[in-house]
Every structure is written in C-alpha cells, then in structure tokens.
Amino acid sequence: MYKLNNILVINCGSSSLKYQLIHLSTKAMFPQVLSKGLVERIGIDGSQLNFFQNEMTRVVKQDIVNHQDAIELVFDNLVNREFGVIKDLSKIYSIGHRVVHGGEYFQDSVVINDDVKGRIRQCFDLAPLHNPPNLIGIEACEKVIKKIPQVAVFDTAFHQTISPELFMYPLPYEYYDKYKIRKYGFHGTSHKYVANRAAEFLGKSIEKLKIITCHLGNGSSITAINGGKSVDTSMGFTPLAGLPMGTRCGDIDPAIVTFLIEKEKLNVDEINSIMNKKSGVLGISGVSSDFRDINNAINSGNNQAKLAIDIFVKSIKKYIGSYIAILGGLDILVFTGGIGENDSYVRMECVNGLKLFGISIDEQINKTKSKEERNISTENAQISTLVIPTNEELMIAQEAFRICNCEDDKKSLKI
User: How many angstroms separate the CA atoms of 148 and 94, rounded?
Assistant: First the structure.
C-alpha cells in the first residue's frame, strides 16, 4: 500500500538551524522538497526564519531564544492551516540529523538513543564547533516531538572504511590509545552521495568502480573510493588538513606552527585562528575567501590572487595523482561543491596535464553553465570526468529512510 515517507532533515549550527522536509515516495521517480528554510540568529537580536514552501518564500521575524524555540517555529510552519505542507506532525516519518563527528564509534547512520547521544557528546573535543549544536538540535526535537524516530547521519562514518596504514599518524602510538588521534575525514555525506550518483549516471555498478570525488568549496576535500567504500581522504584529524581552502591552510609543515608561536608570540587560540580563518586563498591572495572575488582580482592583474588559485589547483592535482596510485587505477573523476560545480576554470586547470592517466575534458562542454549532472569528458577519454551537484540533505533523508524502514521499502525506493 502506498504511504507517505516525509523525512525532515535538520542541520544545527551554534546560532542557526537549516532544514528540509523531503518526500520520498515508492511511486514517484524523484524526491520532492516540500519545504526548506533557515532559522538565523538563534539567541541573538534580529532572529528570523526564512523558508520556502508551497511555491512561496516567507520570512517570520520574532524572538527565537534557543534551538527548541527554532524547532517549534519550524514545526508550526510545516503544519500551518493557511500555507502548511502537512496536516500534522504524524505525517513526518523520521528526522535525519547531520552530525559532524562520530569518532570511531559509528561506521553507519544510526537511530538515536541515549547511548548514541552519549557518544556524540564524547566527540565534543574532536568537533567543538559542530557536535554541541548538532546534539542541541537532536534534544530540541525530542522535547517537541517524542514518537518520531530520529537518525544521526555522521560526516565521518563514510570514512571509517579507511585502513590503519592510511588513517594512522606517525606519532607515538600512545596518543592514539589515549586521545584517538588519527585521520577521520569529513564531507563523507557529500562524497558518498556524488559517488553513488556518478555510478547511476553512467549506468554502472558502484561495486566495480574506482572513483575520486573532489568536493571543492570554501571547505574542500578529496576522497578515493573503491567499490563504494572510502579508501583515503584529504581531511584528517580535523577539517583543517588537506587542500588549501577558503580560509584554512590545509597541509603545512607542522614545525611552522611552533616557529610562528615563538616568532609572533602567539597563544594557542591565535595560531588556530590564523590557520583556520586567515589562511588558504584568503591568506595568499589578500583579497577574499570567495573564489568569485579571486577570479575578478585575477582579471584585474592581481598576481597574488593568481598565485592563490595556482596553489589550490596544484594541490588538487597532487591528490588526484596520489589517489590514482592508491586505487591502482581510476574509472571516474567527480567534481562537486560550490567551486567544483560552477568554476570551469578550476576544473580545467585541475585536469590540465593529466592526459597520461586518461583524463581529459571537453573545453566547450566544461564551460557550459548548467545545474545538471553532466559528463564533461572528451570522446576519447579513458576516464569519465563528471560534474555532479551534491545534495547532502537528500543523502541524509535517504539514510534516515534506509535506517528506519523495512527491507522491502528499501528495495522499492527510487532516488
């Protein structure tokens, strides 16, 4: 019998809450976003909810003291008699929460219970800016609506298949035992989504594919995927590692940290701020962390802006080359994220010189602006280069559905 499968996706920040209500149907070919919105400035003057539903954009301005107030406001608007999209909250099948860090505890998404919440709390030290508000959102939902199952979808879970020789750091082993210092990787929800979509786009089984996914945005990471499983990824113990990003430095000689602390008389918070908020393309260019601003500066003859892009691109190429070696070959290269999906220059420069690996892209197709999934490879390319728009909210909804539903519904769901 046909039944509604409305999944509410929640992504809580320290003073914000993003949500989408997504309808997944066993009959419809595509998921439908029934409502989406952003609660801003929670606990701060000027708080408001901006949301879109029933083909209307609306703004609700009111005092929103905490995340529970924000959740209640979202629910009230979903069931509003005038413009709501569901009759009552019982029409929500489950709630999927983005949780940034699951440590080594979680290799998959899970139904949330007291033990799961305790584990999320134990990872506060590993993700102090993200896990606390993620847990606040979970507990706020529990207080408002108790009977609907909630599912935690972890950014780190996808990367738990990485083997020890690639996730361990060459530090004294006792630090791993004591503090679980190791590579965790992030953006896992995005990497998993675009890898699966890439396989479906080409009509191939992901179990037989070697894929490199490049999630390029203000935060950027690259993942090597074999048979649908993460083999290695560029981010590490924290999201600071790997590629240079909008404001993050990425991989640097660790001795630079102690050198700068001594020379500049910095404390821990100050050096962290430099590496996380003042480095990357912003630090090199001196212009902006936004690649659109960087490109405008390049067009005006700014050499530092050009250097920032060159450093970013060369770092991506190094990871692509090394991951081809780790995978022992490659079938698909995927670009996603704000930059990966929209910046044709960055994509072209990233693959420039990689023809020896069988990677080449069509210049005209690459320059074509589109929000659709597309193959930008040349006709004779041995490796398919794709642009796949990421959709982490849909991936979270799909995960929540998978975890909560029976095996028959899993098989029949079409996404």
Answer: 6
pLDDT value of residue 27 = 55
pLDDT above 50 (res 323): yes
CA distances from 397 to 6, 9, 14, 55 (A): 9, 6, 22, 21
Q: Residue-wise over 284-316: b if at least 16 C-beta within 10 A, else e? A: bbebbbebeebbebbeeebeebbebbebbbebb
Indicate if the pLDDT at residue 1 is higher than 80.
Answer: no
In whole angstroms, give the CA distance from residue 306 to residue 217.
17
Q: Does the predicted model carry a pTM greater than 0.70?
A: yes
d(CA 118, CA 135): 10
Whole-angstrom distance, CA of residue 96 vs CA of residue 78: 16
Lowest mean pLDDT among 29-38, 159-168, 213-222, 299-308: 29-38
- Please, what sign has the CA dihedral across residues 26, 30, 34, 38? positive
Assess whether pLDDT exceeds 50 at residue 413: no
Q: Which of 155, 232, 331, 343 is catalytic?
A: 155
pLDDT at 414: 46
Cβ–Cβ under 8 Å, residues 338 and 349: no
Query: Angle at Cα 377 formed by Cα 375 and Cα 381, nearest 5°?
Result: 135
Q: Is 310 a catalytic residue?
A: no
What is the C-alpha to C-alpha distance for residues 17 and 261, in angstroms, rounded to an integer?
Answer: 36
User: What token pair was written down for 162?
Assistant: 């990485």
Q: How many residues does the chain have?
A: 415
- The CA distances from residue 336 to 84, 139, 185, 341, 373, in Å, are 33, 32, 17, 5, 10
- How many Å from the N-terminal Cα to the C-terminal Cα in the chain? 19
Domains of the chain: 6-154 (3.30.420.40), 204-392 (3.30.420.40)
When pLDDT is averaged across residues 314-334 and rounded to a whole number, the result is 98
Residue 228 — left, alpha, or beta (φ > 0 → left; ψ -120 to 50 → alpha)?
left
d(CA 409, CA 166): 36
pLDDT in tens, 66-92: 999 999 999 999 999 989 999 999 999
